[in-house]
Amino acid sequence: MVMGILIGVVIGKDMPEHQFKIGMVLLIIISLAIIVYWDRRKSQTVPTHWSFAGGTGVLAGISTMVGNLAGAFTNLFFLAMRLPKNEFVGTAAWLFLLTNLFKLPFHALVWKTISTESLLLNLRLLPAMGIGLWVGVQLVKRINQKQYRRFIIIVTFIGALAILFR
Q1: Alpha helices in the chain (DSSP H)
Q2: Which of 92, 110, 82 is nearest to 12 (CA)?
Q3: Which of 61, 72, 120, 133 would give a disulfide with 5, using CB separation of 3.0 to 4.6 Å?
Q4: Which of 53, 48, 62, 82 is nearest to 20 (CA)?
């Protein structure tokens, strides 16, 4: 993901938004189709080739730097790895904390996309984030593993469509 973020810093500032959206949506939908195909085949095989993790990481890095869209790619990767729901959520939380901290200087110093106003807005949103965290934990506790997998696939697909039509 670090390599993808660095690539995103270079190519992202001047990339046409429409081109980025189409590319990301196509990659997400193709990846989702592969995951659904694996699930329907009842395949328990986990991809082990370095190119799968590396490729997904680079795509997630580029997409998080350019459009904060790494969630779709990390969802697909975690689904392919067959992570249980609690590990899925915990790993994603740590991953996004670390990648967002890594991106911070690039946004502040290179792209200059962070301002005092945006920081103040983020501080005002902290209580809502806390509520969302609590609600999310309660939901994850109530959903079984199979339903959780299905939920992630559906939400990722809806997210891809939202990117396309936004």
Answers
A1: 2-12, 17-40, 50-67, 70-80, 85-105, 116-142, 145-165
A2: 110
A3: 61
A4: 62
